[in-house]
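User: Small ask, check this?
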Amino acid sequence: MIKSLYTRVVLTFLVSVIGGTVISFNLSIWIYKDELNENLQVLMLRFAQDVVQIYDTFPLNEADKLVSGLKQLETYHVRIYDENGGVRSYGGPDSLKLETVTRGQVEQVLAGGIVKVNPSGISVSLLGLQLTTETGTEALFVEPVGPPSTEFVVKWLLNFALYSLVSGSLVILVAAMFLVRPIKKLTNATRKIAAGDFNVKLNIKQNGELGTLARSFEEMTRDLQQLEQMRREFVSNVSHEVQSPLTSISGYAVALKQMNIPESERSRYLDIIIGEAERMSKMSDSLLKLSLLESQSQQLRFTAFSLDEQLRRVIVALQPQWSARRITFDLQLTPAVLTADYDLLSQVWTNLLGNSIKFSGDGGVISVHTKQDNKSVTVRVSDTGIGIAPEDQKRIFERFFKADRSHSRKYNGSGMGLAIVKQIVLLHQGDIRVESELGAGTSFIVTLPLQVPAE
């Protein structure tokens, strides 16, 4: 089996050209065979008729002189046979190889018949007509001196086809090189990517299918590079997030081995160990939850419920967090019945409101507004907290990303909450976006369909 695209292109071209040329040539000959035969015989027949007319008009001696001086003898050779077998020949050198004239053909012409010899089926190589002179009836035979016209045409066509094939082959060889070159670049680039090198530049400027393929390949390469970067950041973040509590647990566990530690210090060390263990457990649960959501292994349990009532329940459940810091709520909740997974959406509101409470100052205000149209409902959760920098707003939904690293210990978060929120919203075929300004607060806008369309 031929595996090289270059070889396939060349062979396909050669087969197409050769096959098409042969078929077209034979088809043309078959279609125009009769017309070619008729046209090629016209000149010979007219010349023969002119010779007959000369002998009918002039005496034999004068006729012989006229015929021997005809310019057409450069093209045709004339032979005249009498009834006794004598022959007079006009035109061409003595060494000219002539068509054999049989006695039967002579007798056929003397009897008033016409002889046409065309061995190729198209061109006439010998034409015999009856001729009458003052000495009696004779047989006139005319034949071309050079190659028949059709043979010349056929030869010319074959040469033309051969030259066309050779020149076309050279052109397709060069064209195939330009065709295969970008494919070779793609092959080499694929090998580099497979080896882990994503810094691939193809520099293919074509606008056709190969150009589109090359641009799609470059986009895929950038996506893979970004995924690889995200993977490395993820591994780094997981290592950091796990290492920190493990270090604390290990350090305080070693400290607990000391025998002279006061009971109050021992109790504090144990509380720290328990807290760090709970932090690792929550992070593990969040990772597992996000993994299930991203792999769509999480089966959504759809129920119809009142969205405004759910928001109120979540706010009440978070009361210990916001009441201690004198945070108030501005609620403008439009009654809306939503068909969705109640528990997952409850986690969305818990995370968003929990972030608003966490990053708001004491005595701040959190606004929760809903708006409904015929197909969807929009929930806007706004706070008056520290805000998010513009360059961080594009990454806040990435796992482990923390917009303000300097406050990460103060606000005690793993950076998993918003990643989970976004995945839950996407599973409900909704949308979430953020509006924020440093020092002026943050707003999260969630849009959900009133009923998730069936897949």
